[in-house]
Write a structure and sequence with these properties.
alpha/beta, Rossmann fold, N-(1-d-carboxylethyl)-l-norvaline Dehydrogenase, domain 2, 19 helices, 12 strands
Length: about 500
C-alpha cells in the first residue's frame, strides 16, 4: 500500500509559505493546521505552513516523507446522537525543519516578508525564560529564545525599524500565553543587549494574541490503524485522530491590529473577542472541572474510562447535577451559552471513539481540583451558605484515592509529586491515631494544597460525612444516587 502523498489531495492547491509553526505534535496538526487547511479551501486564502521541530525527538516520522501531507480523522457523536467519522488529507503543511539540525534554514524563514504568522505549541513548560540561553546559540534552548533570535534576524535583514513584524498565536495551555511569550522575548532582548530600536520594533511591528484552544486529540490510532488505512486506501504513519468538537478563541485587545490570517471568517469554531477570560473560565470550570470532579469517584467505582462511566445513569446524573447547581451558576458568560457548552461536553464525554482513561486524568489531581473546581466550590458555598454537597463528595474521594484506600488501588496508584503523596501518608496516620474527623481536618487545613485552610467546621463535617459514605460500604457508581438525592437542592 502506498504512503500518503500530495496525490491524495485530488488536485487541491498547495498554499504559499506564510506561517511558521513551532511544534510538530499531534495537537497542532489536528487543530491549527486542520483549521488553516479548511480555511484555505473555504475562503480561498493562501496560507502554507512550515513546521519547525523545536527540539530533538518528538514524533518518529517526518512530514517531508509525505510531501507534508497527512490525515486528520475527526470522530465523535453528532447532535443527533449518531456516530460521525470524517477524514481529511491536509494540504496546508509545506515542509518540516528541525531547529537543531536546520537552524540556519529556520532563521532564513525570517527573510521572507510573506511569512507573517507564527503559531506554536511547545507544551505548558515551553514558554519559559532561562538566562543560560545566549544570542549565538544554534539554536537557543528555550522556545522564547528561539523566537527572539528569529525576530532579530527579521529586524536585521528586512530593514530594521521598517521591517514587517510577525503576528504570534501561541497555543500553549497557560494563562495569557502570548503575554508570557512577549515577556520572555523582551527579557532576552534586554539580556542580549539588542538595543532600544529593536525593543521598540518588537512592540510596534509585532502583535502577540492570547488564545484559548479546545479539542481532544487522542493521536495515532495504533489499535485501529490497519482497518483505517484499508478504508482510506493508503498508509499514513502521521495520521492523527481528534474529536469532532473544536474551539479556538483569539483575544484581540484594544489597540491590537486585525488578524492577517482569516481564521474566523468561515469557521464557527473560531471566534475573536476583546477578552478571552470568560471562555477560559468556562472551559476550565465545565470541561476540566467535570473531569476533575468525577475522576476519583469513577476510579473508586472501578470505572476506568470516561465513556464507560457515562454509560452509568447514576454517574451521568451526578455529573449533570454538579454542573447545573454547583458550577454553571458561578460563571460569567450568559447562561444559555454555558448550558449549550455543558451539553456539548457531555456529548464529548460519551464519544465512542475516544478512550480517555481516568487514571491519566488523575495526574496531579489535587492541584487540578484547586485550579479547576475550588473557585466554583467557594462561590457556591458563599451563595448557598453551606458547602456544595456534590463537590464535597469529590473532595472526600480524592483523599481516598491518594491514600489507596479502595478496591483495585494496587493497579491505580496516585500520580503526583512524592511530596504531595507524602502528605496523605501523614493524614492517614492522624486518622489512625485520632479518628476520621481529625484526618479530614488535617487534609482541609493543608495550605500547600488549597492556598489557604478550608477547615471550617461545616466543611469538615460535610467531607467527613462523604468519606464515611464512600468507605463504610463497598462503593459503586450506582450509590451516587443515594448521595445526590439525599439533598433536594442537588
Amino acid at each position: 500500500m502506498q504512503r500518503i502523498n500530495q496525490s491524495q489531495l485530488e488536485g487541491r492547491p498547495r498554499p504559499s509559505e506564510r506561517v511558521i509553526q513551532f511544534g510538530e505534535g499531534n495537537f497542532l496538526r489536528a487543530f491549527m493546521d486542520w483549521k488553516i487547511d479548511r480555511m484555505n479551501e473555504a475562503t480561498g486564502s493562501d496560507y502554507g505552513i512550515v513546521v519547525v521541530r523545536p527540539i530533538d525527538g518528538g514524533i518518529p516520522h517526518s512530514l517531508n516523507d509525505s510531501d507534508g501531507v497527512y490525515t486528520v480523522l475527526s470522530r465523535g457523536v453528532g447532535s443527533d446522537g449518531k456516530a460521525v467519522s470524517e477524514s481529511r488529507a491536509i494540504a496546508a503543511v509545506r515542509r518540516e525543519l528541525s531547529a537543531v539540525a536546520d537552524w540556519n534554514d529556520v532563521l532564513a524563514l525570517a527573510h521572507n516578508p510573506d511569512i507573517s504568522v507564527v503559531i506554536s505549541n511547545t507544551t505548558e513548560a515551553g514558554i519559559t525564560y532561562s538566562p543560560d540561553c545566549q544570542r549565538d546559540d544554534a539554536p537557543p534552548a528555550t522556545f522564547p529564545a528561539k523566537v527572539t533570535r528569529l525576530l532579530l534576524e527579521r529586524f536585521d535583514t528586512l530593514g530594521g525599524s521598517e521591517a514587517p513584524g510577525f503576528q504570534f498565536l501561541p497555543c500553549e495551555l497557560i494563562d495569557h500565553n502570548a503575554d508570557e511569550l512577549k515577556r520572555c522575548v523582551l527579557a532576552y532582548a534586554d539580556q542580549w543587549q539588542l538595543g532600544a530600536d529593536f525593543i521598540d520594533w518588537v512592540h510596534s511591528a509585532n502583535a502577540f494574541y492570547n488564545t484559548l484552544v479546545d479539542r481532544i486529540v487522542p493521536g495515532f490510532p495504533r489499535d485501529e490503524i490497519n482497518e483505517i488505512e484499508e478504508s482510506l486506501g493508503y498508509r499514513d504513519p502521521l495520521l492523527v485522530t481528534a474529536e469532532l468538537f473544536h474551539f479556538l478563541v483569539i483575544e484581540q485587545r484594544e489597540g491590537q491590529p486585525d488578524l492577517k490570517i482569516p481564521m474566523a471568517e468561515a469557521d464557527e469554531g473560531t471566534i475573536i473577542v476583546p477578552n478571552a477570560d470568560g471562555y477560559k473560565e468556562r472551559k476550565v470550570a465545565i470541561l476540566n472541572g467535570a473531569h476533575t470532579g468525577l475522576c476519583p469517584l469513577a476510579l473508586l467505582g472501578n470505572s476506568l474510562a470516561v465513556r464507560e462511566t457515562m454509560q452509568s445513569a447514576s454517574a451521568k446524573a451526578f455529573l449533570c447535577a454538579m454542573l447545573e447547581t454547583e458550577i454553571l451558576p458561578y460563571l460569567s458568560l450568559p447562561r444559555d451559552e454555558l448550558e449549550a457548552f455543558s451539553a456539548e461536553v457531555l456529548r464529548r464525554f460519551e464519544n465512542p471513539f475516544i478512550l480517555h482513561r481516568w487514571h491519566d486524568i488523575s495526574l496531579n489531581g489535587i492541584a487540578k481540583f484547586h485550579t479547576r473546581n475550588l473557585p466554583r466550590f467557594k462561590a457556591c458555598w458563599h451563595d448557598q451558605g453551606t458547602p456544595p454537597r456534590l463537590m464535597s463528595l469529590s473532595l472526600a474521594a480524592w483523599l481516598i484515592f491518594y491514600q489507596s484506600d479502595f478496591a483495585g488501588s494496587e493497579t491505580l496508584p496516585p500520580r503526583d509529586d512524592q511530596e504531595v503523596i507524602d502528605h496523605f501518608d501523614v493524614f492517614k496516620k492522624i486518622g489512625e491515631q485520632d479518628g476520621r474527623k481529625a484526618m479530614i481536618r488535617a487534609y482541609l487545613t493543608e495550605e500547600s494544597f488549597w492556598g489557604e485552610s478550608l477547615a471550617s467546621d461545616d466543611l469538615v463535617a460535610k467531607v467527613t460525612e462523604a468519606h464515611a459514605f464512600l468507605t463504610n460500604h463497598p462503593f459503586t457508581l450506582d450509590r451516587l444516587d443515594a448521595w445526590s438525592t439525599s439533598n433536594p437542592s442537588a
